[in-house]
Amino acid sequence: MKYTKQILLSVVLMISLFSWLVYYFMTGTTKADTTTYQMNIETLPASGFLKAYNMAPGDKSTSILHVKNSGNLDFTYAVSAKQTSGATDLYNTLQLQVWNNTAKLYEGPLNKLQDLPLGEISKLGQMDLTFTAILPLSANNSLQGLLSKTEFIFTATNPLIATTLTLSGPASEDYNDPVTFLAYLTDTTKIVPISNATIALHLGNQSFTSITNSQGNASFTFKPNQPTGLYELSANFAGNTMYSPSNSSVSFTINKEETTLDIISSKTLAVGKVVVKAKLKEDGITPIANRTITFKNGDTQQSGITDKDGIATVTLQLPSNKYTLNAYFDGDAFYQPSSATQIVYVYTPTQFIIWCGNEEDEHEVKLGRDYVFWGAQWAKQVKSGHYDANPSFKGYADKVGSDDWTTSPGNSSDPPQQVSKYISVIAATHIDKNGSTIMGNIVDDVILEVDSPDSYQPNPGHSSSGVMVTKVEQGDFSSSN
């Protein structure tokens, strides 16, 4: 919108003049410019303009009007004519000529003078106009004695101040990572910042607004949430009653966000309860939901969808063995691919007992050591420590609690008919005998790789052993995480 001002000059009887001022502020280098900007148009004479009485056909009346820009803003101006009272026939008959210092600007009917451009007057400048009213020779006698009053309406318009908008920021950023851009708005004429102006920023289907500060800067910090690719990032100042609109744009690339994938399920899982889990995160921190994670082990493959916590869960049908479990996120339009690998022991839970109470072992199970877990000669592995049972203990517990176990001597216990490649066993450091009951403590649940699963027999005359490969992770002795 432009600033306008009107002056009304009445023909024949009087001159009427009104004016109004436009005030606004322009910003300076570091603070608002406190200059009051005023648009004002004045005319001389201020009254008695273009009077004519008792005109006869062919008569003329000429008057020179001095138009002055008494404000401190340049303006362009125009003039229109409007009858306010009197005889319409006379008004419609009168002819008018308008001249400036160098050329004729108008010649025609007075009633057709509408928005005639008169040129531009710089601040504190002046222009002279000559108006001539003519009663044509063709005018008939019926116009004698008539009177018409006409106003000339001068409209001054202040051109909007040109602006320049520039946009600065990085050329690219990852999807969903914060990025900051600055839009800088200046008065093109004075090359000074413009404050308190609303700037709109657009990136694809994302839009933001910000207000310029005293330095002319509008700051935008946001997270690109659209598919990766090259975009036009545009800033727009819509203009106002003082400043003209301006725009700026730059190319901006949204990159795929980095992801991390971790297998978070236990590396020791019981047969029949092989539930595996993987967690997908953005930048290693923020969970990513609704993405497909594929779990693979050899020819076995199954997929799951991440939940709100970024966790995908599947159940695999795997027999007892040692596996290399792979998890994959293939990536999409927003995220980079990622993968994870974990060694998983799928074991058969058992109630076999191994001895780790020898003082030389410091009462700990030793990784990589071969332990006897079943057989008539089970007690021969006891070299020291608290062991009060006799050789009648063959290595299998009938009942197992959370902290201890009990069994019957000899062949009275009920071991399984077969064992798998990997089994869980109980590590004990304290075994007692009370009557016919043998009892012991539980210091660890560990997994053995059985030396020869096919050679195992529930008859204690056939000894069985295995190499300790890992401990059962907490809670996995009878169930998976």
In short:
By secondary structure, the chain is mostly beta strands. It has one helix at 88-93, and strands at 3-11, 26-27, 32-33, 41-44, 60-69, 75-86, 95-99, 104-109, 116-121, 126-134, 148-158, 163-168, 172-174, 179-187, 192-193, 198-203, 206-211, 217-222, 229-237, 246-255, 259-263, 268-270, 275-282, 286-287, 292-297, 300-305, 311-315, 321-329, 338-355, 370-374, 386-387, 399-400, 404-407, 422-428, 430-434, 437-441, 444-450, 464-471.
Notes on the protein architecture:
By secondary structure, the chain is mainly β. It is built from one helix and 38 strands. Strands 22, 25, 26, 28, 29, 30, 34, 37 and 38 form a nine-stranded mixed β-sheet that branches. The longest helix has 6 residues, at 88-93. The protein is rod-shaped, with a radius of gyration of 49 Å.
List the helices and strands and how they pair.
Elements lengths: L2 E9 L14 E2 L4 E2 L7 E4 L15 E10 L5 E12 L1 H6 L1 E5 L4 E6 L6 E6 L4 E9 L13 E11 L4 E6 L3 E3 L4 E9 L4 E2 L4 E6 L2 E6 L5 E6 L6 E9 L8 E10 L3 E5 L4 E3 L4 E8 L3 E2 L4 E6 L2 E6 L5 E5 L5 E9 L8 E18 L14 E5 L11 E2 L11 E2 L3 E4 L14 E7 L1 E5 L2 E5 L2 E7 L13 E8 L10
Parallel strand pairs: 13-20, 22-29, 29-34, 31-35
Antiparallel strand pairs: 1-11, 2-3, 4-5, 5-10, 6-9, 6-11, 7-8, 7-10, 12-14, 14-15, 14-18, 16-17, 16-19, 19-20, 21-23, 23-24, 23-27, 25-26, 25-28, 28-29, 30-38, 32-33, 33-36, 34-37, 35-36, 37-38
